[in-house]
Design goal:
79% helix, mainly alpha
């Protein structure tokens, strides 16, 4: 594998487009370069799996943050005196519409 090929592989890995199977021909060799390619393939697969787990964790954290932000915004509205006044007025209207309870 020449320097240009190694450089292209490094760039592909950095851009998340590297496919460990691209090294299959080199990995099939019985020499030290083949062993190095197999090790690199395994490491690339492990890095990919780790990145996927981290992306899932980040997505989960974003959802949790959005839910917390939403709950905080609802609390900001529902804990105001104005909202409590509206609730009381709505209850009074319901009581009027239901009529006397006898």
């Amino acid at each position: 594998m020449n320097l240009a090929s190694r450089s292209a592989l490094a760039e592909a890995e950095a851009a998340e487009t590297f496919d460990p199977d691209d090294l299959a021909d080199v990995a099939a060799r019985p020499d030290a370069l083949g062993q190095l390619a197999r090790v690199f393939q395994r490491m690339a697969r492990e890095v990919y799996a780790r990145e996927q787990r981290l992306k899932q964790q980040v997505q989960k954290l974003r959802i949790e943050l959005d839910e917390a932000r939403q709950a905080r915004q609802v609390a900001e509205i529902t804990e105001t005196d104005y909202f409590r006044q509206l609730q009381a007025e709505a209850q009074n209207l319901r009581d009027i519409l239901e009529g006397p309870s006898e």
